[in-house]
Amino acid sequence: MNRALRPVITLSLLTLSITLQAAPAVSTGQGGAVATISEQASRAAIAILDQGGNAIDAAVAAAATLGVTDPFSCGIGGGGFMLIYSADDDKVISIDHRETAPAYFHPGIFQQNGEAMAWEEVVPTGISVGVPGTVLGWQEALGRYGTMSLEQTLAPAIEVAEQGFTVTDNFHRIAQKNEHKFARFEPSRALYLQNDKALPVGSHFSNPDLAATYRAIAKGGAQAFYEGDIARDIVAAVNQPPVVDGVSVLSATMTLNDLKDYEVRLRQPIHSTYRGYDVYGMAPPSSGGIAIAQALNLLETRDLSAASRTEAEHLYLEASRLAFADRNAYVADTEFTDVPIAGLLSKEYAKHRAPLLEARAAGQRGPGDPFAYQDDPSVPLRPAAAGLMQESAHTTHLAVSDRHGNVVAYTFTIEDWGGSGIVVPGRGFLLNNELTDFDFSAPHPNVAEAFKRPRSSMSPTIVLRDGKPAFTIGSPGGSTIITTVLQTMVNHIDLGMSLADALAAPRMSQRNGDTTLVETLLGFPGSEQARALEALGHRFVETDQIGAANGIAFHADGSVTAVSEPRRHGVGTALVQQQ
Ligand code: GLU
């Protein structure tokens, strides 16, 4: 329908250069910088910086391009969190454009006969789809902190969508995992499959429908997405998903008002300190900023410089465990739930919990009681221990900085790889399944409610030293995002690794479980490092790879180092502007 399969012949400098050059995963220089998982997206950001745009303009350009090249992880059918360090204002602010539950939502929506429905059953349906926030998020970011228009910043992405690109291993691999999901919906099948199979590696993929949708947004602004024909198409796709013959699917009752009424939130980030650094992370509805700050507060009670690598990593795993015990119990959208943020972030509370960092792996822990550490003790909740709910592990994170000192850490997503699997007919983008990030069983602070934003783990992070950016980091990976960002920070700050080494090191994800997730790709299982931790009681479960992080380090001489994944997720691209 709207896929063009043709030989790789393109006149575009942007796309041509991609096929000729290997992607650098580390770049150092004096100009603006970018790190993303997509070569085209990183080049789009540099093109915008070279045209005089700032980091916010470049971040929107990179994000829009990622929506073309990595459509299974992110896009305008989803939402995200953009953290911005504004050099002029000398402050960090965040733009929350998380997907929101429509008006018809209620706590029992994911239950049948009093039982929580299976996560897999809900994902490829209309009821998993939240009102998308990305387009309004971009518009707000540009309007408040950017210098360019949507028209200018979407231009590189429109070019890539129209001219297309060669299907990579990674694109193929992810589409392959989603063959069954995409085959349920006519437009998804037509766009991403060939004879119901993922497009082969080396074939050419373009997305003229998405190019046209971007053009409409470039011309009409966010209003063109949230009202009018595109909005009508979104609502129709959610309420009567465009299924192939023989497939029946739960449908929803999203309305045009749900789209028209969507609002972005400007939020104060979570601020904490760690060994002389100022750490800024994402506030609720993400749990990322709080959990990372809590784990760092716990680690700060110990002298890691005197610890062996094994001891330091053991403490990292146990601090993460305790942070997750509280995260699972307390954190949700603060517009609907009283989250004891001050107590959770209190250094005194961390000291109170720190004795639980024992010499051996502890096994699952219950949540602590942060209420005694709140200035406002009126918060009445004492939630019981909650388990880690099922969550997907696929989104994308990008980092951008500019010559003026602005920094953007931006994580955005459509939740599962391929989201709900529903491509909006004729529009070229997938709708999210973000509402499956709600807890399915009530009562819980993160239960589904109308107009609520589901709890996230996305953790765009900006770290300052003496008031100036020191580094920025973020990753995809569902709830492993929190551990990836935390571990990378510990590697960098406590274990003395460069940001590049910190990001390349094997990852371990302990989220208050009996076992810790580790990466096969990086050869961690069976390694000396693994055996030393096993001797302390840690038990490992393997997964192929965890996360796909991107970051930028800022050096005292004014130079910057952009760092992207050297091995995971098909290898990312880090670029610095040429002088
Ligand atoms: N839904 C996840 C979250 O908001 C993001 C998906 C992912 O990282 O894979 O935390």
UniProtKB/TrEMBL annotation:
Family annotation (SUPFAM superfamilies): N-terminal nucleophile aminohydrolases (Ntn hydrolases)
Keyword Acyltransferase set for record: yes
EC identifiers of the protein: 2.3.2.2, 3.4.19.13
Naturally occurring in which organism (per UniProt): Oceanimonas doudoroffii
Active site residues per record: 395
Designated name of the protein: Glutathione hydrolase proenzyme
One function term, GO molecular function aspect: glutathione hydrolase activity
GO BP terms in the entry: glutathione biosynthetic process; glutathione catabolic process
Residues binding L-glutamate, per UniProt: 98, 437, 456-457, 478
Pathway(s) the chain acts in: Sulfur metabolism; glutathione metabolism
Post-translation changes: Cleaved by autocatalysis into a large and a small subunit.
Alphabetical UniProt keywords: Acyltransferase, Glutathione biosynthesis, Hydrolase, Signal, Transferase, Zymogen
Phylogenetic lineage: Bacteria, Pseudomonadati, Pseudomonadota, Gammaproteobacteria, Aeromonadales
Subunit structure: This enzyme consists of two polypeptide chains, which are synthesized in precursor form from a single polypeptide.
Signal peptide: 1-22
